[in-house]
Amino acid sequence: MRNLQFYPVNIEVKRGDAVEWENDDLVPHTATSASFDSGTIVSGQSWRHTFTDAGNFPYVCTFHSQMKGVVIVK
Prior knowledge:
mainly beta, two-stranded antiparallel sheet, 5 strands
């Protein structure tokens, strides 16, 4: 997370992989979807989630609705 964007916007992983969101921005963010929610990630902190099911998992930052991404789990 930097410059009010997720990097990368889309990421492809395998089932069982963990994805980590690091906040390199000056403001807090979230990574929130129907199946996971990081809660508030403050500047300099990170949060990770392990994906056990295949599928597409779109997510947003609840503070900045223009920040969107997708985790694609194969």
